[in-house]
Write a structure and sequence with these properties.
The protein folds into 2 domains: about 90 residues; about 110 residues, Hypothetical protein, domain 2 (Endonuclease III, domain 1), CATH 1.10.340.30. It is about 60% helix and about 0% strand. The chain is globular and about 55 Å long. It has 12 helices and no strands. Helix 2 packs across helix 3, helix 8 packs across helix 9 and helix 10 packs across helix 12. By secondary structure, it is mainly alpha-helical. It binds a DNA duplex through helix 3, helix 6, helix 9, helix 10 and helix 12.
DNA sequence: TGCCAGGCCGGGT
DNA sequence: ACCCGGCATGGC
């Protein structure tokens, strides 16, 4: 148990409280949202999900049967709507063809193997795979995103050349393997990221400001 | 106006 | 094994 990670968590939780992630009504909705939110703000995704809900399409078979051109129009607000319509289709093909759309069955698969299967789907990278596993499946894998990278590198916990695996290992080896903790920690990192860890750091008033090295946040190079 | 958002893929060194 | 551009809407 890394005391620095626990300290950071306690400060974030004290500042922001439970985040109640992921904002979705079902595991399938989490999966759809995980693809649509790639490099996009959640506000945009909410509209797209709303479009799908209005049309009763928040179900694997129904959504897979929508022609990709129609899918594009339904998800247009998310941006990158042409590529994302196709990525979503690939994910739906995977869910239906491999598990007959039965997510309960899919999440019976062991974590390492299911993660590999998801990474094999065109349009699912590491963050999207881990988001699906953790937030839709309740499986213990730590989600790393751009905010996570900025927090750990600017605080000097890891070097700026740290890749996804290194950052994930840092959290997973420094914390107990606990789904609820991974869930909450990532949500809290996103919250602090939105407020204080954008492309330019805004450390004034940040709950983690006390943990910064002398002289403030580090920079690449 | 310009910059940024809860990435990922493909092509070029 | 890196590095980089493309993808695109919406909010501030």
């Amino acid at each position: 148990m890394d005391s620095r990670l626990k300290e950071a968590y306690d400060r974030l939780f004290a500042a922001y409280g439970p985040r109640h992630w992921w904002p979705a009504d079902s595991p399938f909705e989490v999966i759809v949202g995980a693809v649509l939110v790639q490099n996009t703000s959640w506000e945009n995704v909410r509209k797209a999900i709303g479009n799908l809900r209005e049309n009763d399409l928040l179900e694997p078979h129904a959504l897979r049967d929508v022609p990709v051109e129609e899918l594009e129009e339904l998800i247009r607000p998310v941006g990158y709507y042409r590529v994302k319509a196709r990525r979503l289709r690939h994910v739906l093909d995977f869910l239906v063809d491999r598990y007959d759309g039965d997510l309960e069955a899919m999440f019976q698969t062991n974590l390492r193997e299911l993660r590999q299967q998801l990474l094999g789907v065109h349009g699912i990278g590491q963050e999207t795979a881990d988001s699906i596993l953790l937030y839709a499946g309740g499986m213990p894998t730590f989600v790393v995103d751009a905010y996570t990278y900025r927090v750990v590198t600017r605080h000097g916990w890891l070097d700026f050349d740290a890749d996804y695996d290194a950052i994930q290992d840092y959290f997973q080896s420094g914390l107990p393997e606990d789904v609820q903790l991974y869930n909450e920690y990532h949500a809290l990192l996103v919250e602090v990221g939105k407020r204080h860890c954008r492309k330019k750091p805004i450390c004034l008033g940040c709950p983690l400001a006390e943990l910064l090295p002398e002289g403030g946040p580090l920079e690449p190079e």
